[in-house]
Design brief:
heterodimer; A: 113 residues; mainly alpha; 3 helical TM bundles of succinate and fumarate reductases; 4 helices; 84% helix; 0% strand; B: 104 residues
């Protein structure tokens, strides 16, 4: 892959990491707050349905993670498994698309129902 | 080199990232089927599943701590306090691990 593409991927990885640092901090605090006393679907959906601020937050979270995770796996596959062929990037584009689709489907399900 | 704190931080960051990448599709799949959420939440009451939940939350905290360390090393001018970033990331993992275990 050419150096310009490698640089673009590096920038995307760091930019998505910066967004995720904020998202994960908020998500961890929410998890710890929400699990006290156990979780029920009704309790989760009461908190999320119709809440546009949380909808926007989690949509951004999904987009950032769909960029970040495949680029991270790309380095792992190249360095630890020696998989550097074009087929690796093709597989990771599919993984990114699957993550984005599943994640946005989940966000819409939980927030819009 | 493999005994060095930086190498350990690198391995923890990488392994936690792999765990999260494997977990996320399943996490999204379950949340995407919100109508069946209660049946799934009942399944998560099992002790081994709770242990798994705890481990993935700890992995998330570890990846956050390791990621903040990398961003600080790459983007901030070098200062001697940056040598303590791996310890700070470790402290974050312990704090989140304890807080989540107490909340479970």
């Amino acid at each position: 892959m050419n150096p310009r593409t490698e640089t673009t991927l590096w920038i995307l990885q760091r930019a998505s990491a910066a967004v995720l640092a904020l998202c994960v901090t908020v998500h961890l605090a929410t998890i710890i707050y929400a699990v006290r006393g156990g979780l029920t679907a009704a309790e989760i959906l009461a908190r999320t349905r119709g809440n546009n601020a949380w909808l926007a937050f989690y949509a951004l979270f999904v987009v950032a993670v769909s960029i970040h995770a495949p680029i991270g796996l790309r380095a792992v596959l190249g360095e630890w498994l020696g998989w550097r062929a074009r087929s690796r990037d093709f597989a990771l584009v599919l993984f990114a698309a699957a993550l984005a689709w599943l994640g946005l489907h989940a966000v819409l399900g939980v927030f819009l129902g | 080199m493999k005994q060095h704190t930086s190498y350990r931080a690198f391995v923890v960051h990488r392994v936690s990232g792999i765990a999260l990448a494997c977990f996320l599709p399943a996490h999204f799949w379950v949340l995407g089927n919100a109508l069946e959420l209660d049946a799934f939440l009942k399944w998560t009451e099992q002790p081994l599943v709770k242990l798994g939940e705890w481990a993935i939350v700890v992995a998330l905290a570890a990846h956050l701590g390791g990621g903040l360390r990398v961003l600080a090393l790459e983007f901030l001018p070098w200062q001697s306090w940056q040598k303590s970033l791996a310890a700070a990331a470790g402290a974050l993992v312990v704090a989140v691990g304890l807080a989540f275990a107490l909340a479970l």
